[in-house]
Write a structure and sequence with these properties.
- The structure is a single chain.
- The protein is an all-alpha fold and 160 residues long.
- The chain is built from ten helices and no strands.
- The chain has one domain.
- The protein is globular, with a radius of gyration of 19 Å.
């Protein structure tokens, strides 16, 4: 069988399409979600993205056991998205970890405006309030340690 015939077979075409799928560093939410994922922030905010990607927030999902992922009680603090989205996705969240939007708010409008060349800073919370942190860093966490917002918040985006 010559090489030309092999490349033209339907099985080869299906295999080629299946193996060339784009794999994203950080997955994105479905189009109907107001959340887009940290990958959407990376191009415009590379220093902050790189600093975040080295944090425990970025890897927070890895600290959960399979049982904790399934229970639903821990996932809201270890994944990003609306409460409904996180609950529906259960142990396999589209946006694992504490991504940019968990603190700064949903970013689809901001990202789309930036892509169109007209970013609107008001579409995103530049400096998250303390309650954005204490939503998870509180006595309900089984591994809670006292959290001091004023002292720790500057360290979240510590750029090297």
């Amino acid at each position: 069988m010559n090489r030309t015939r092999v490349l033209a077979t339907p099985a080869f075409i299906i295999l080629a399409l299946a193996t060339t799928a784009v794999v994203q560093e950080t997955p994105t939410s479905p189009p109907e979600s107001a959340y887009v994922g940290a990958a959407a922030c990376k191009d415009c905010h590379p220093k902050y993205y790189d600093a975040w990607s080295e944090t425990k927030h970025a890897r927070s999902i890895t600290h959960l056991s399979a049982e904790d992922r399934e229970g639903g009680q821990c996932m809201p603090c270890h994944a990003t998205g609306t409460p409904q989205q996180i609950a529906a996705e259960s142990a396999n969240p589209t946006l694992p970890g504490i991504q940019c939007e968990a603190c700064h708010g949903p970013g689809r409008a901001h990202s789309e405006a930036a892509t169109a060349g007209a970013p609107k800073p008001g579409d995103i919370v530049k400096t998250p309030p303390e309650k954005a942190c204490t939503r998870c860093h509180n006595q309900n966490s089984p591994h809670f340690r006292p959290f001091f917002y004023v002292a720790l918040s500057p360290l979240v985006h510590k750029v090297k």
